[in-house]
């Protein structure tokens, strides 16, 4: 009986000093309480106005973009995407020299299928062809029109401003660029006015093989075979020469411009001693934008997007950022730390994997700080199956911190203030420049 009474008194005492009802005091809540206590013991009680760097997050507005397909309005995507370099005469010659080495009589296709990409004109061919009646058709590229990106199901997407084997504007400048959105690089085709048919005969040159990494060159070969269906019309048939120089375009993926991004570092609440506060359980860059999404619904819609680049995963528990499990995104097991020098492999501060998170309808009533702090969920899953969403409250121990985009995160198991000695002072005074 005495043991029972003592046990009940202990439970009453526990409940009187806990901010939780004992029956509802989950493991995740225990972890949060332990984390907060350990943080205060290690760094001191945070200043009441300390908002952990989230006060200057910018929300960009890209809601002026076009619908699916071609976008030639440069004012709409300058600043949103990294604009590729203009095509140079030296680049054009490098492609032609590669083709002159001989490509045989075999077409090739792109291996990757990009939804968003830039298209630049490179070369208009000058070869003269003869039809099956023996008559010259003149310069073949003059008959090549209506450049198309082709989806895997055969649906075509018109690449605007490309006709007669060239680009209609100043193709050697940005004015010659066309941005394709929600499209496909699985195949390409042009319309041949000689036989009124579309043709997809081309080879792909990887720019890395000729000194232009990141670019791919689609090199078309002229062909007309309309006399197959209409044998009497010999003028509709033209044989190929397999030079692949009749029309050449350059494509490259549309890489989102992360200028204006911030970096977020976080702890998965496992920290309960000084060395645990390395704030590298997940590290990622994020840029927020209200963005037109032509693929949303039947007519497109303005959406709030988080453009995210994961940098490191120093935790050994499953952890998601905006619903994406970070370890699997890095291609490692959930208990494997990545890019924190946990295994003596060093840290590559320039490496990362990117994705885009749709956070819902476009939001003009919230500040970027509110969105970055509260609308990009970072969720850790514990071994018992419980989950905890990391939070960041002003004046309380931070489970996540917003830092400069060039911030170099700490190595594994080393307290953050060893690399950044002013961190403790910053905890107590937000005006301290600690990075």
Helical content stands at 10-25%
Q: Give the biggest beta sheet.
A: 6 strands, mixed
Assembly state (oligomeric): single chain
Silhouette: elongated
* Strand runs, count: 26
Rg estimate, integer Å: 29 Å
Structural class based on helices, strands and sheet pairing: alpha+beta
Tally of helical segments: 8
Average per-residue pLDDT, rounded, comes to: 88
Q: Tell me the strand percentage band.
A: 25-35%
- Spatial gap, N to C terminus: 59 Å
Q: Are there runs of 5+ residues with pLDDT below 50, and where?
A: 1-23, 65-69
Structure explained in plain terms:
- The protein is an alpha+beta fold and 435 residues long.
- It has helices at residues 2-17, 27-43, 74-77, 89-100, 326-330, 368-374, 416-419, 423-428, and strands at residues 59-62, 69-71, 117-124, 128-130, 136-139, 144-150, 156-158, 162-163, 166-167, 178-181, 187-192, 197-199, 202-206, 216-220, 224-225, 237-238, 247-253, 262-266, 282-293, 301-312, 319-321, 324-325, 353-361, 378-381, 387-389, 400-403.
- The strands form seven sheets. Strands 1, 18, 19, 20, 23 and 26 form a six-stranded mixed β-sheet that branches.
- The longest helix is centred in the first third of the chain and has 17 residues, at 27-43.
- Residues 1-23 and 65-69 have low confidence and may be disordered.
């Amino acid at each position: 009986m005495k043991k029972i009474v003592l046990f009940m008194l202990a439970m009453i005492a526990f409940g009187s000093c806990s901010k939780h009802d004992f029956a509802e005091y989950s493991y995740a809540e225990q972890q949060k309480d332990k984390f907060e206590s350990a943080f205060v013991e290690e760094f001191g009680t945070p200043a009441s106005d300390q908002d952990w760097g989230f006060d200057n997050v910018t929300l960009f507005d890209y809601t002026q973009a076009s619908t699916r397909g071609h976008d030639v309005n440069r004012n709409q995507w300058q600043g949103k995407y990294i604009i590729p370099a203009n095509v140079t005469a030296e680049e054009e010659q490098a492609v032609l020299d590669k083709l002159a080495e001989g490509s045989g009589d075999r077409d090739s296709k792109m291996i990757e299928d990009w939804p968003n990409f830039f298209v630049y004109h490179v070369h208009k061919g000058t070869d003269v062809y003869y039809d099956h009646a023996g008559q010259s058709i003149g310069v073949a590229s003059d008959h090549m029109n209506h450049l198309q990106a082709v989806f895997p199901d055969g649906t075509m997407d018109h690449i605007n401003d490309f006709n007669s084997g060239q680009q209609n504007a100043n193709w050697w400048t940005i004015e010659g660029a066309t941005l394709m959105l929600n499209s496909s690089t699985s195949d390409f085709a042009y319309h041949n006015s000689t036989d009124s048919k579309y043709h997809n005969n081309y080879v792909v040159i990887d720019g890395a093989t000729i000194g232009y990494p990141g670019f791919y060159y689609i090199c078309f070969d002229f062909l007309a075979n309309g006399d197959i269906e209409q044998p009497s019309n010999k003028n509709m048939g033209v044989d190929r020469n397999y030079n692949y120089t009749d029309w050449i375009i350059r494509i490259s993926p549309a890489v989102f411009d992360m200028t204006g991004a911030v970096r977020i570092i976080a702890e998965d609440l496992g920290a309960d001693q000084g060395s645990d506060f390395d704030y590298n359980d997940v590290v990622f860059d994020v840029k927020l934008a209200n963005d037109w999404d032509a693929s949303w619904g039947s007519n497109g819609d303005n959406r709030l997007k988080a453009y995210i680049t994961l940098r490191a995963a120093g935790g050994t528990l499953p952890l998601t950022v905006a619903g994406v499990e970070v370890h699997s995104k890095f291609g490692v097991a959930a208990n494997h730390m990545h890019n924190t020098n946990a295994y003596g492999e060093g840290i590559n501060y320039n490496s990362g994997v990117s994705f885009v998170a749709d956070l819902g309808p476009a939001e003009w009533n919230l500040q970027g700080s509110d969105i970055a702090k509260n609308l990009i969920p970072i969720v850790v899953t514990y071994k018992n199956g419980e989950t905890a969403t990391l939070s960041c409250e002003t004046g309380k121990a931070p489970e996540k911190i917003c830092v400069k985009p060039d911030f170099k995160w700490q190595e594994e198991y080393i307290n953050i203030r060893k690399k950044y000695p002013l961190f403790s002072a910053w905890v107590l005074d937000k005006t301290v420049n600690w990075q």
